[in-house]
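Lab channel / #folding
Pinned by the channel admin:
"Please post every new chain as: sequence first, then the structure tokens as a reply. Keep commentary short and put observations after the output so the thread stays searchable."

First post following the new format, from NK:
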Amino acid sequence: MSALRGDLHIHTCLSPCADDDLTPVSAVGLAKLAGADVVAVTDHNSARSLPAAKAAADAYGILLLPGVEVNCAEEIHLLCYFRDVDTALRFGGALYDALPDFPYDPAIWGRQLVTDENEAVTGEVEKLLTGAVTLTLAETARLCRSMGGVPVPAHADADSYSLFSVLGGWPMDADFDLFEVKFPDRAEKLIRAGILPDGKPVLTNSDAHTLDAVASRMSTLEDGNPLLALL
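Reply from TO:
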């Protein structure tokens, strides 16, 4: 397969921190308009936007890489990508069971909307999806791989919710084949310093939470990138 370009880290109205008008259909459509070959919808701790995203991707002629962004027990974000929507939904179900059950007020945290391929709201999620699951980074990575997925540390160089901010460097108990960065210039310095590994594929995506951010940054998947095997 030739190189593919796309935004592989987009949130939708299912994530409480994202705008309500950023539906999975609009996310996929905007990525297509930006020239992406592939798009990944990666909501916090849930895959329930993926059926609508898949319907939109099929209609618009763009590849969908089903994903979830997990907030692990250490408060490290881990992107988990899968071959198909059904597998991602099963993974999301396991994450939901691992989320703490405490009162959630959408007026404080934001709404968590499930929408269909016509952008109609079909439900709302009751547990706060941005909370940390009880699974550690290593446990989440193992669960992802056991379901045929590829785990990718999200924004590994960021100042919060990242390998760099929480662990100070690459983890000893969970290895990864690639990672995502937020600041490419900073990542280069961290690689030279031995804090992040050299020689692994690096992604840079939008991490969009608003319509105008979708596809503002995109990654290129070249031969040897393990994500290509999922497409």
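NK: The mean pLDDT is 96.
TO: also worth noting, The two ends are 9 Å apart (CA to CA).
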